[in-house]
Structure formats: C-alpha cells, structure tokens
Amino acid sequence: MDDYLTIIERYLEGRASDSEKKTLQNWLAEDANHEIFFKQKIKEWYANKEDRPTDSDGAYIRFKQTIDYKTEREIIFRPWIKIIKYAAIIAGVLFGGYYYTLVYKYTKKTNTEIVEMGTLPMDKIKVTDEEGRVSFINFDDKTDIINANGNLIGKKEENQLIVEPDKAAKEVRYMEISIPKGKLFQLTLSDGTKVWLNAASTLKFPQHFIASEEHRIVYLEGEAFFDVTTNKEQPFVVKTTAVDVEVLGTQFNVSSYAEDSTVKATLVEGSVIINDQNENIGSVKLSPSYQAVYNKEKNSLNKKRVNTTLYTSWIDKKIILQNESFAEVYKRIERAYDVTIISKNKRLNNTSFTGEFDVENIEEILKTFSGTLKFTYEINKNNILIHPE
Fold it and tell me: Which pLDDT band, with edges at 50, 70 and 90, does 252 fall under?
C-alpha cells in the first residue's frame, strides 16, 4: 500500500512517470476498494484548495475512462480537469504573421534584409548590431551577419545564431536579437553560453565579453532558458526590468514579459542568486528545482519548490499547465501561436486547468478547452473572440 500511496501522491503533484501512471491504472482495476481509497485521496488532496472538484465521483469516472483510452490517443485526465496530449508536435502557427508594406534591400555580402522604411515584418528574426543597424533574417536562412564595417558578427545556421567573438574588442558593445510571436530560437553567445529564446522575446548581449569586466551581463525582455558556460572569475548576470539573476555556470529559465504581473526565475541545475534591483527587499538564493517569483505589484520576492518541466517545456514546443486559470493560460497561447484572444466568458477565465498540449494548431486547443467547459468562440484571421455564457 505504501508504494501505491506514493504513486498517488506523485500523480496528484504532477510528478508521476508514464510507468507509474500505468501501475496506478492496473492497481485501480484490481479491487473496488482501491477506487474508494483513490477517491478519498482526491478529496483529501484538494480539501483546502479553491479549485477542488465539486463532483469527485464524476471526475474519477472521467479519469478512469481516459486512462483506459490513453494508449490510443495519449489523453490523460487529472481528478478534476481534462488533460490533453496529442501525438503531433507543434509544427507551426495556424495564424501566421502577415506582412505589412515594407521597403527593403539586400546587402551585397549576405541575404540579410536591411530595413529602409515602413513597418516591421512579423515572422522574421530582428537583429540590431552594435552600430544600431537593424536587419531581418528568415528563420530558414543560412547566412552570415555582417556589421556596418563589413566584419562578421554572427553565423545563422538553421534554427540558431552563433555569435562570432571579437577578440580585438576593447570595450563592451551590445547587439540585440528579437523573436516574434509564434517562434522559438536558439543563440550561442561568444563565451559558449547557449540561450533558447521564447516567442515575443528580446535579448540584448555583447558581441564579445571583455575579460576585464566584472560580470558578463545580458538584458532580457520576455522568456529565455540559459545554459551558462562556467567562469568563476566573471559571473553571468541576466538583467530584467525588476530583478537580476546572477550565476557562475548553470541551467535556468527566466520569464519576464512586460504584460505579466510577475518575474519568474526557475533553476534546473547549479545555483543562482536573484537580486532586487531597488535593493529594498533583499535577495534569494536558489538550489535546483526551486523558483524565485518577484511580484511587480506587491514588490515582493519569494521562492518555492516546483516541477521545473512545467517552466521549460516550451523549449520542446509544448505547453504544460498545472492548476492555471484560463486567464493565465491564454497569454501563453497568444505568444506561442501569434494570436490575440479576447475572452468574455468569466466562468472559463476563472476555471483552473492542468494539462499538456502537443498539437498542430490553435483550433485543436480551443476545441479541447470547449470540450471540457462548454463555450462558443469565433476566429477572424489571428483574432479569437470567446463569447460570454
């Protein structure tokens, strides 16, 4: 019994492996008393939670039916909410960004587009070199990026940009890269640090880290996962609008979107220190599997233990939810699919969801949500309106 109790607890915490879920499925099928025990554990687990299930028997039945069906479609139910995992990986954006009028020319040395005038394109990588010159690159291009002086500053190879070190540099000079909604991109900095940029994110970084500088400093707007090259003599610092994340060499995720009420730093490996830039609420040191959360409105900085997969799954083009309201969820969907969502359904907005999405288009996601909690919606190009009840 102790082993099954552990598996149940891990399942409710969202930490159970596929084999443990299968073991739980078989155990539930052995004896009716196992079902009673499992239902009781569901009630106990959510007894003090605002989003506890109102119909645990119904929730259990849905759970049981879907576990049995999992082998066919990889669809799982949590005790109180529907969890979907499709076999297909996110292949692209249903509503791809469209072009506004743009006048541009091609450089003689590369096929990089240099903006002359007009509105910016919606589905390209924006690169600003150290001279402030802006260029745009297609995601599928393989090209060299040249600065105004004709010097190589980076190589674009498939889905990543490798920054070319400028060992002759005497001072830190920053360049910038911006990723549009609906896209992900990988970047290798001059010190070997690897950065995965999420949709609608911008990273400002030196073309070359000068050895005489006290820190290796980059600036982030949006979300990124960092795999930092160790350099004990020169700590790596990620600056956001509210907090600084300082490391020596480690793997961590930082989410700092302007429209979000919080800044989150999640540590996968190593150790980091999160410092309040205003120096009035102190700092927090993280160990692996911990997350620091800075609340912009409350001006507070706290830490908690988390399942890091929930905050790094976007690298694999997945959206994993755990007890998140739809009002929180749809912001992530907007960025991942380059859509704008307006939800006038208050009950939907306040409903919490746990699940995993690995799908081809936005309509499948909307159908999943509407299948769990009935609502109607309409799609007009890349705008989605969810009707009130």
Answer: very high
**Euclidean distance between CA atoms 379 and 376, whole angstroms:** 10
Distance CA 323, CA 379 (A): 26
Separation in Å, CA 328 to CA 260, 295, 324, 325, 375: 9, 15, 6, 5, 18
Q: What share of the chain is helix, strand, coil (3-state, %, to 5)?
A: 25, 35, 40
Residues 197, 199, 201, 205, Cα dihedral to 10°: 20
For residue 29, which amino acid is it?
A: A
pLDDT at 271 over 60: yes
- Residue 191: count of CB within 10 angstroms of its CB: 18
pTM of the complete model: 0.69
Q: At what angle do helices 32-45 and 56-73 cross, to 10 degrees?
A: 110
Kindly report the CA angle at 270 between 269 and 272, in degrees rounded to 5? 110
Predicted confidence (pLDDT) at residue 13 exceeds the cutoff of 80: no
In one letter, which amino acid is 1? M
Instruction: Give the integer Cα–Cα distance in Å for 338 and 87.
Output: 22
* Entry field: residues in the chain: 389
Start-to-end CA span in the chain (Å): 45
Angle between helices 18-30 and 2-13 (to 10 degrees): 130
Q: What is the dihedral of CA 144, 147, 149, 150, to 10 degrees?
A: 10
Residues 314 and 90 sit within 8 Å (Cβ to Cβ):
no
